[in-house]
């Protein structure tokens, strides 16, 4: 087994930023899905808000010696052209309000440079949220449109709850994997294995954890206890790329919380949840089962208070439709090695992947918070030749100006294990860089 832990970057960046916010948090929201499902009861007919996330990334850009090229893991997504750069990772404007006491709406456009807006190798901003919620039926709020799909806690939270610039690998690859165009003109079978190459022109970007459909859900309080449920029927596909092939999907989440104090998305509580997703995306005219399920638990107390603390755990398991991103850019040196510069999809239900994340945080003052995170993603353990194990240990530091405006810095110690290596995979594993990233979330 190969295990590589690269040298630390001799790179230091510093920044200072002050910002206010006019974006008031919902005062009576129960949890993150509730925050995004409905507007506060006293919200007006129309409100505008948004945020931008300027980001700096820095790593060595080490070359994989067996190929003579820098692998994607050492380059910055989504363009994979540089190892050290700066840009706007997310830029979003949102419109929401209450048409009456029973009808709430929420629409949001994404304009940043990320996996959601990187479609068919090009930049394409798009609608990332778009739904209307009807609350006429007691105990069953009905949401229709482009919906944040019930799933893992980290996937249903808003970006204001994120503690790191980089999300856990297991969540990105299993839950926010790239959509692909199931047209035979773009997808080719490389060999006798049950996997298919995905050229860049067939890559439709990520879904941002959203899918079109209809969801029923609600939350119920009894003293300190709160029970929430969400059940969705929809289509698996990204609206931004027009990929609405009719592939069905279902998703459910059940969540229990003990509220310690406070209201809104930054309250103090202990909560746990279980969830399940199923879809049948199509490839070359055939539908394949895709299953995702998991559990999570969290404890948060004293947000933006001295000695406020947080603990979180999440486990995700997947079977069928496992996506493996391309290891390299297409260059003359590897032009004849298509599996290296094309992503691959493993659609059969026998294909597996799983991962977990554990995280902790502590406020030293009202504004300064330190966080630690470890995440592991084990991709295709059923296929020894393609098995890859990604391990990341992240150290983060945040300065909170307000609950929704802050600056984050993080250092990521990254390891790639290849249980059954060949020359290329061994070289890639040995070249993996650590990464430093800094980001501001500025709300308006």
UniProtKB/TrEMBL annotation:
Q: Where is the signal peptide?
A: 1-29
Matching InterPro entries: Porin_dom_sf
Per UniProt, which keywords does this protein have? Signal
Domain of life of the organism encoding this protein:
Bacteria
Record's keyword annotation contains Signal: yes
Name the record gives this protein: Porin
């Amino acid at each position: 087994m190969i295990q590589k832990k690269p040298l630390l970057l001799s790179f230091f960046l510093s920044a200072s930023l002050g910002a206010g916010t006019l974006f008031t948090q919902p005062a009576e929201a129960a949890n993150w899905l509730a925050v995004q499902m409905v507007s506060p009861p006293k919200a007006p007919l129309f409100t505008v808000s948004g945020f931008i996330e300027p980001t700096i990334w820095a790593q060595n850009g080490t070359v994989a010696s067996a190929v003579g090229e820098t692998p994607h893991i050492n380059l910055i997504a989504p363009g994979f052209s540089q190892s050290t750069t700066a840009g706007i990772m997310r830029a979003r404007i949102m419109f929401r309000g209450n048409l009456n006491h029973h009808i709430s709406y929420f629409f949001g456009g994404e304009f940043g440079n990320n996996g959601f807006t990187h479609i068919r190798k090009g930049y394409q901003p798009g609608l990332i949220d778009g739904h209307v919620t009807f609350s006429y039926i007691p105990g069953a709020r009905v949401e229709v449109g482009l919906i944040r799909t019930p799933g893992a806690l980290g996937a249903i939270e808003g970006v204001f709850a994120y503690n790191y610039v980089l999300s856990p690998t297991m969540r990105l690859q299993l839950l926010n994997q790239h959509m692909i165009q199931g047209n035979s003109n773009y997808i080719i079978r490389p060999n006798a294995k049950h996997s298919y190459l995905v050229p860049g022109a067939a890559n439709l970007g990520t879904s941002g954890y959203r899918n079109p459909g209809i969801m029923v859900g609600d939350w119920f309080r009894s003293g300190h206890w709160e029970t929430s449920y969400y059940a969705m029927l929809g289509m698996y596909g990204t609206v931004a790329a027009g990929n609405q092939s009719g592939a069905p999907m279902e998703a459910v989440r059940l969540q229990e919380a003990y509220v310690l104090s406070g209201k809104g998305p930054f309250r103090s509580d202990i909560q746990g949840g279980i969830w399940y997703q199923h879809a049948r995306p199509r490839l070359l005219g055939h539908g394949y089962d895709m299953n995702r399920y998991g559990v999570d638990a969290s404890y948060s107390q004293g947000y933006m208070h001295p000695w406020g603390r947080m603990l979180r755990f999440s486990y995700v398991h997947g079977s069928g439709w496992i996506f493996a991103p391309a290891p390299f850019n297409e260059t003359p040196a590897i032009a004849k090695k298509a599996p290296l510069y094309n992503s691959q999809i493993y659609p059969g239900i026998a294909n597996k992947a799983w991962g977990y994340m554990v995280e902790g945080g502590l406020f030293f003052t009202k504004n300064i918070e330190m966080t630690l995170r470890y995440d592991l993603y084990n991709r295709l353990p059923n296929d020894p030749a393609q098995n890859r194990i990604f391990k990341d240990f992240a150290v983060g530091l945040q300065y909170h100006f307000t609950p929704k405006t802050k600056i984050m810095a993080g250092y990521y110690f990254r390891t790639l294990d290849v249980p059954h290596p060949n020359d290329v995979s061994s070289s890639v594993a040995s070249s993996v860089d650590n990464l430093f990233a800094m980001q501001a979330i500025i709300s308006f």
